[in-house]
Amino acid sequence: MNVKSIEKKPLRKGIFKQKKVSTLGQYAGYTTADYHGFDYHSEYLEMRDGIKLAADICLPKKLEKNKKIPTVLFLTRYVRSFETKFPFSLLSKTLFGQITKKEIDFFTSYGYAVVIIDVRGTGASYGTRHMEFSPEEVEDGRQIVDWIISQPWSNQKVGSTGISYLGTTAEMLLVNQHPNVKACIPRSSIFDLYNDIAFPGGVRHGKFIEVWRDTTLSLDKNNLKYIGAVANAVIKNPKPVKADTKAEQYKTAHAQHQSNFDIFSGMYKITFRNDIHPDLGRSINEFSVHHYKDKIEQSNTPIYRIGGWYDGALANSAIKGFLSTKNSVKLLVGPWDHGPAQHISPFIYSNKKTFSVWTEMLRFFDYHLKDIDNGIMDEPPISYYAMGKEQWRHVYDWMPNDSKYKTFFCSADNTLPEKIKNKTEGCLHYAIDKNFGTSGGARWNSLTIKYRYNRRIAYADWTKRTKNLLHFTSEPLTKNMELTGHATAEIYLSSNAKDVQLFVYISSVDKFGKATHITEGQFRGLHRKESNKKSPVPTFAPYHTFNKEDAMEWIPNKVEKIHFELIPTSHLIKKGERIRISIAGADADHFDEIDDKTCNPASLQLFCTKEYPSQVHLPLMVV
């Protein structure tokens, strides 16, 4: 098996002692909530180029005079707070945005200041956005921290956090290498903007790009009908800062937002990772966190990465971000979607979260921002949730040492044996269903406001939905096996067009024939070249650059190999169940067809011979 190994970081044994003081997600009484409620204030912070950024400042109510406290900083693209319409304004004139009042209450109750900033060109801040995660936006972070530590209530220590875009800006803050940023907790963040969200496997994630564009433009233009009827009925506009009593400054800022960058049209000018956007003069790499990983490492700010197994492809961001940066000291991956908003496991009916992510964050911030030796850094650095066993596992390495790759071969009789059969010929034909999709219950729907709360992510109709795909099914397992890690697919195929997009799904099948979705991955044939260059992030399959110079023309009806990673997971396959590999040529619910119609095949031919042995490599361990 040719699975590329990764260079693992040293365990830094000086950090991880043997004693264990507290428990994951629990504080065990080592700290108490000393405050109730918070005092709210807002003002503008002026940047070096005259751009004014709107800031909400929340301090614990009845904070003692001369008391110095640390700060939790959020840098938001989604509006820090809103002003409500009548009659809702009779209840509260302020409605907080993605950083909810409950989250603010939580951190201020434990003696933290919470500062929320509308990044330039959004909310009530001035400026026009020419790109996301722009160098100007990143540089603003240095001045924001300078302002925070100049305040009379600041203890000179700042921690950054946030979810999604905010999780990404939390890490981008470290590019500035500000010595007073002492901790960072990116949640559901984007480490590799190309491969983890916009073009997973080089396939354009068009539905996400479109919905995200519409969501952000509706916020920028203060037209909330797209967000939903409730939001449109309740919200008047982004909240002006306190001194802007007639909202004149907000109106000036709002006018500047009308020329904000349209990410949707921009993404349709991109195919390769290093394509130069004609309107920006930059590639997508240049506003991706992984592009700045050396500077982020040099900040020496400890990072705690938090992600979910059902969070689109962003489990890769959490895991590979941890493996890529030496100052990533903790990793937590749970049975969650984006946020996390829901607890998701096919083995549990309820989707109610039972794990306190905020408490785990508090433990990390208390250690690094308050110097409380609460034991969090004595514990193994990696914690992940094993679905099916429904328990947390704590390890020092990714992947876990007990997880070993097993190879299963696709066979012309649609079986999935562990040894290749003595067959000299084998080719299976699959007529591509262009309408096949993974539905609104798929992991991809967790990534956007519009779809996230519509339904539980469950792949509930997976048996019916995939019945017409090309299948390969193993013999029943003789032991309980846990698939933990990055599975890879090594597929030999041909098509009747100039390119192909391949979708591979792993499921378990019980004795009644019910299929349960485990994980998936996709890849565009154009990018299949296996590079001998050093990958900027760890890989578990051959490295593909996705660069234009490495594109390989797909020759119709010629057998080609595509070897790529699937999205990592940790999932139990029970004794007596079978492993099933399913093959598709489209996911119409989430991913675009190739723009050039001559590159969209009507069918695939998948090869299962000794010369062309299609196979999957699954990281399995006995449990």
Write a brief caption for the model:
With 623 residues, the protein is α+β, with helices and mostly antiparallel strands. The chain has helices at residues 101-109, 135-149, 165-172, 194-198, 206-220, 229-234, 248-257, 263-267, 293-298, 315-324, 357-369, 449-452, 462-465, and strands at 38-46, 52-60, 69-76, 81-84, 94-96, 113-118, 154-163, 181-187, 235-238, 303-308, 328-334, 382-386, 391-395, 404-409, 427-431, 470-473, 481-485, 488-495, 501-509, 515-524, 560-565, 569-573, 578-584, 603-607, 615-622.
Number of strands: 25
Instruction: State the end-to-end distance.
Output: 23 Å
Structural class given helices, strands, pairing?
alpha+beta
CATH first level of the largest domain: Alpha Beta
* Helical residue percent band: 10-25%
Q: In CATH terms, what is the architecture of the largest domain?
A: 3-Layer(aba) Sandwich
Instruction: Look up the CATH topology of the largest domain.
Output: Rossmann fold
Radius of gyration: 25 Å
What summary fits the major beta sheet?
10 strands, mixed
Secondary structure tally, helices:
13
Q: Which strand order do you get reading across the main beta sheet?
A: 1-2-6-3-7-8-10-11-12-13
Strand content: 25-35%
Number of domains: 2
Mean pLDDT, to the nearest integer, reads: 92
Write down the overall geometry. globular
**pLDDT < 50 runs, ≥5 residues:** 1-21
